[in-house]
């Protein structure tokens, strides 16, 4: 049985890698090329005045743009080159934890069945609101941040052929990273399904998913996103929507939760070298995710109830 489960898992993993790879490869390639054009500096210049409004220096626009266009690693690399206060680094870290890798993760959300504008609006909205609140509430952190574990700087790539090869290498590496995570993950999930352990896990998670306004069949989707992030967890999400019959409503509510709080281990530990308190960062993400999901689920359920009442009234009259 294990052999059959593994074969099925490999096939599903390859299919999922191909589905997501068609998004990740071109987006990574385009963004890697954009780094060597005047477009990113122009975007940075454009949002610098906004930084001043939320209590940040103009320099913080650099990691924010890189984090949203590329990923958290690029953003952290940029932060390590800047002299910022602890408060500024913390605000940027919170903003980026809500809003990063926007092009790929938003494309993945659409593939899962979530409207593009919902994903972008929620993530940008949370990033801006959290920055404003932290800036107003926290009056400390004025000392200059001390960074540890500074990574080696990449050599500057020059010449269009070298730039193109570098971009292709990054895009290819993105697909490889996806495959080595998604394929074993799909094998494990298929084995757990065939052993009926996933059903047990769903029952354990049922009170949590119900509390958040979702059915218990959403638990696999929620767990995958929490542990592996939106891009890598999307493989499980797509499969769960197909096989577990997760409704469009539940997948949207799950995505709202995961937008605020996903890849909790990696996305929290990644900020440790910046010398900021990471536990408050995790608690902010988790608290916001729960609150936001409860609000969205409540509004959605009230709207559905009102529609049903209206339909029932029309039917009886």
Automatic annotation (TrEMBL):
Taxonomically, the superkingdom here is: Bacteria
Keyword annotations: Membrane, Transmembrane, Transmembrane helix
Report if keyword Membrane is assigned. Answer: yes
> Membrane-spanning regions, if any?
20-44, 64-82, 89-110, 116-138, 171-192, 221-241, 253-276, 282-300
Name of the molecule in the record = Nucleoside transporter/FeoB GTPase Gate domain-containing protein
Q: Does the keyword Iron apply?
A: no
Pinpoint the Nucleoside transporter/FeoB GTPase Gate domain residues: 18-100, 176-265
